[in-house]
Every structure is written in structure tokens, then in C-alpha cells.
Amino acid sequence: MLPRILCSSLLCSALVLASGCSKPESDGAAGEPAKPEVEATQPTANGADAAPAAEDQGSAQAPESGVDYHSFANTGDYRVRHLDLDLTVDFDRKVLEGEAVLDFKRLTQKNPPMVLDTRDIKVEAVRAGHGGELKPVEFSMGKTDPDLGTPLNIQLPKKATRVAIRYQTSPAASGVQWLEPQQTAGGEHPFLFTQAQAIHARSFVPLQDSPQVRITYNATIRTPEELLAVMSANNDPKTEKDGVYEFEMPQPIPSYLLALAVGDLEFKPMGERTGVYAEPELLDSAAAEFEDTESMLEATEEAYGPYRWDRYDLLILPPSFPFGGMENPRLSFITPTVIAGDKSLVALIAHELAHSWSGNLVTNASWRDLWLNEGFTTYLTNRIMQNIYGDQRYRMEMALGYDDLQADLEDLDSRDEIMAIDLRGRDPDKVFSNIPYEKGSLFLYELEQKIGREAFDQFLLEYFNNFAFESITTEDFIEYLQQTLLKQYPDKLDEARIREWIFEPGIPEGAPQPQSDAFSKIDPVRQQWLDGEIAAKDIDTGEWTYHQWKYFLDGMPEELSDEQLEELDSAFNLTESTNNEIAFSWLMIAVRNDYQPAFGRLESFLTEIGRNKFLRPLYRNLVESGKQEMAAEIFEEAKPGYHPLTVKVNSRIIYGDDAQ
Ligand code: BES
Ligand code: ZN
């Protein structure tokens, strides 16, 4: 039996060699290219050439459109079309073990090795051929890149169109979190979930891990009998727990939408096509909080065309989930931290649902084009929120998003304020900001304002139909605009301004500035309180919504006195707030003003929640206000319960750039 080890690259290559592979490791020098050399520059799906050679990459002025700098796969030679997965979930060893069978098309007359993406994966055997007849073939692991993982090179027989890889994952797989029972709501059963976006699918399936490649998939997942497995596929609400689960995803999806979760899960319907999977302890509160999901789905279809994915369900994860939500098709993964009891945070659901059009149907071709996913989705989210909850809510959500954008613009490097961001040589996990979201959305809002809502909705509907099930680049989008809106509205739109939005830092002059009347009422009250004209307890907060609370707190000056903090806290019980967004805003104030009475809550908040939207700013704030030691102490205590991504991005903040 193979020893149970963390797959350090050294040990991995030793194992690979021991398992009969003969091709030596690729001899990439330091600073080697993100891509292996390809035989010839093959056109990609989007008509761009395959990755330029190493020398060109560093020196090239701008990243090349349509090139995925974050995958080793030679997608110009071979294109995977379908995946058959058979995996056993081993909670004791914290590994997924089994076989991935990839069906692919050959795009070249030659027979170069096939290169797949992997990360900390132990490959045990590879077979290839076509049809059912697969024969063992030679393979080798290439040089590991800290951001991209390890290329798997496979020597294919001529004419092969299928390859089968036997493998197991590492307990430290970057895209998988293994939870102990005590990290779950029920406390009795372990839990597992994957998070593939952006480049972590390769840590649990060897494949062409690029959003340019769309695959259908089938999967058999074997788990302990008492647990349920769900995937980004056709989950049947009536499935009985028996430890063997079959899935099918008939629509072609990019690899970052592959997803699996296993736990003590139950299902509750919310509507005809919508329902919730959660641990039994959370099922009712989640179903009540998100009961408007079906209406959101209908409203979105009404405006932007049919929902093409059959069912739309939610999976409520344990609080260590590093995101608010993830748009895994047919089954969005959702943090439990948005169950506030009053639907105040359900824009998150609108957001993940909207991705069923912007992102899952029309997909960014590379991570440089992420704004096509997130900007369109943020715009759609606002529209859904307006449709379901009315104009006031819409304006408040937009205004909060605009403030988030302004805050980021104050901090970010100007190269990171560009929507079509240059990510060459960078880890996408480390370059996460509001730019693709809020700047992208504001850009679309400006287009809407200029040509009118009806015309813009018509444009979006046609855009989704035109590019359905395709992966597109920023340049594809601009070309489409040239053929549509720029032609139809030459007096209202011009290409130079559109390019400014997409390729220049900051926000173009004269851009819309979303505002809300419900917020303008808050400013004078806050000021009166700051000026000592009114006591906190006398502020009439009875009708305030979550959004107004957040606006009230986020607009506080940098410095508040101990007396002011105590007054706010005793009037509004902020340290004990059960709304995590309000608690977060308050803790940010508490950290920068050294308000000790909130530090107990701060510690439990940082320990119990793994959502990076909260953790990164809090840890950064601690470090910046001279409490690095406290940050490190809390972080070390919480670390065993954190997701690998949470560990990665926050240890950078606490210990500096290169520490892990
Ligand atoms: N797809 C994203 C999460 C993501 C983006 C993961 C990029 C990895 C790389 C998801 O849809 C998302 O945007 N989540 C947000 C939701 C929020 C903006 C409403 C989140 O998790 O905070
Ligand atoms: Zn999103």
C-alpha cells in the first residue's frame, strides 16, 4: 500500500517513478512559462493563438486575449468533452480516490503528449485508447508551479480519444475542505465540500482546468452509508441515503463549476423547481429565509430568457465556507452566515442564481475576463432585487455596492483597477476585489441609463442567447457590442468610452453615482450624534433596515472615543448583533478604535466564520492597527478549522507576502 503522505512534489515524483513511469520530469528552468511548449500555435475556441512561448510571456505588453495563463493544458491539441468520474470519499484518510475518464477530441494531426492540470494529486495509473479498449500508457508529472500546480503529461497512442486516470487526492487539496463533526451544525457527522473556482478543480480531478473547455459529466460517488452526496448536477430531491450516488450533468460546463459536497444533508422544497439541502438543524430556517428563490428564478427568466439548467437548489454549507456563495450549476453553495432571519442578506441568492445566465451560460474565457461573469451578475442581482423587493431596496443595494467600489479604489494598485485585469504570473486567489463586480456592474448600469432599460434588457436577452454555452473573451464582448449597440445607438454610445471602462484604471468621469434617499436620511442623524446633539438611544432606529444600519456604521469617522463606542454599543447592542454583516461593520470599528468589550465577539467571529469577505478586512485591520500578535494568535487557534484558501490568503496578511 502507498504511504499516506502529504504530496510534496519530491515524494510525488518518487512515487510516480516507482509506479513505472519512464518519462523524466520536464526540465523547466526557473521562471518557466505558465504553459508547456506546444507543437504549433493551435487556435483556441475563441480564435486566439495558444500560449506564447516563455520568452514572450514576461515581456509582452498586454496579455493575449483568449489565452488562459492559468492552465498547463494543451487545449489547442486536445479538447476534453466529457468526464466520467468514479470516486470514493474516505473521511478517515481525507482523500478522494478513484478514476476519471476523459473523452476528448483531437485537434491536431500530430501526436503530442496530452497535458492535464493537477495539483497535489497522486496519479497511480493511466490508460488510453478509444472506445472501451484502454491500455496502460506512460505518463510523467512535470515541474510544480506554486500557483498552478503540476502538469500531468500523458503519452497517447495514435488515434486515442479516451484517457482513464486512477488517482487519489491529497488531504491538503486546495479545492477540498474536510470538516470534523464538531465543525458542523449537527456535530455528529463529518462533512466535505469542494470549491473549484478559480483554479482548484485540478486538486480533485486531473483535467483541462480552463474555463475555455466545457465538459458534460457523469459521476458515481461512494460515501459512508448515512451521508448524502450532492453535486453540480441532477440531484434528485427524493434520493434515499445509501452511500452510492449517481449524477449526470448533461449541459456542458467549465471545470470551475464542478462541485461535490457530502454530509448529513436533507432536502426541503421551496417551490416547484427550487429547494434547499442543509443539515437538519438548519433546514427550516434556510428554507424560510430563502423562500423567494422561486420568484427570483421566474423574474429572471421573464427578463433574460429561460432557465436552462432544470432545477435550482441551494446547498447550505458549514460556516467555514470561504465565500458567500458559489454558483455551482443547479446547486448554488451558500454560506449559512446570510441566514439573518429577516431576508436582509438574500441578495446573495439573487447573485448566485443570476450566474445561471451570466457565468454558467455565458462564461469568461480566462480569469482576465472574470468581470464578464461577476459584473453582469452584479448588475442582474440589483435588477432581481428591485423586481422582488422594490425600488428602495434596489437603490440601497446599489449604493452600498458603489461605496464598496470607492473603498477599493482608494486601496488598490492602479493595474488592479482595470476590469480586464492582467493576471499573468499571479495567483487569482490573491487578486480578489470589487472591481470585476461593482465596476463591471456600474459600467452596465451606465449603458442602461444611456439607451434605456427596455433596450438594454433586450440586448442582454440576445447576448445570453447568442453566446449560450460558450466561453467568451472581453474582446468577443466588445466585438458583439460593435455589431449591436454601438451600431444601433451611435449618438448615445461610443467605443472609446467603453474601452476606457474596460481597459483603464478608476471610474470614467461622469459615470453614474448610485444613491439612495433612505441613506440620505441617515447622514444628518449620524452627524447630529457625532456632534453631541442627540443621544444614541434617542435616534429613531425603529424602521431601519439592515442596509441603513450598515450605512450608518460604515460612514462613521475613523476615530471614535471610548465613550462614543460604549454609547453606541449599549444603545444598539452591536457587539451581540445577530446579523453578521452588521457585526462585521461594528467589529471593523471596534478593531481600529481598540474597543476591548467587542474583542470576545471578534475572536469568536474570526474563529467560527471562514468567509474571506469578513476575515481579510478584519485581519488586515488588526495588523494595520498594531495588533499583529493578536491577529496571529486568533489565526493560529482558528486555522485547523479554516478552508485551505482562507489559510492562504489570511496568512499572507498576517505574516507578510511569502509566508504560508
Ligand atoms: N463566483 C463567485 C465566487 C468566486 C469568484 C470564487 C472568483 C472564486 C473566484 C460567487 O458568485 C461570488 O461572487 N460570491 C460573492 C457573492 C456576493 C458578491 C453577493 C461572495 O462570496 O461574497
Ligand atoms: Zn459571483
Explain what the structure shows:
It is built from 21 helices and 21 strands. Helix 8 crosses helix 9 and helix 15 runs parallel beside helix 17. The protein is an alpha+beta fold. Helix content is 35%, strand content 18%. The protein folds into 3 domains: 239 residues, Sandwich (Immunoglobulin-like), CATH 2.60.40.1730; 127 residues, Neutral Protease, domain 2 (Orthogonal Bundle), CATH 1.10.390.10; 139 residues, Alpha Horseshoe (Serine Threonine Protein Phosphatase 5, Tetratricopeptide repeat), CATH 1.25.40.320. The protein has a 7-stranded mixed β-sheet. A 5-stranded mixed β-sheet has the order 15-16-17-19-18. It has a 4-stranded antiparallel β-sheet with strand order 9-10-14-12, with no helix packed on it. The structure holds ligand BES and zinc ion (ZN). Ligand BES binds next to strand 18 and helix 5.
Number of domains: 3
Bound molecules: ligand BES, zinc ion
| CATH topology (level 3) name of the largest domain | Immunoglobulin-like
Terminal CA distance:
31 Å
> Can you summarize the main beta sheet?
7 strands, mixed
CATH first level of the largest domain: which class? Mainly Beta
| Residues in helix, % | 25-40%
Poorly predicted segments: 1-59
Based on Cα principal axes, name the global outline.
globular
- Second CATH tier, the architecture of the largest domain: Sandwich
Strand content: 15-25%
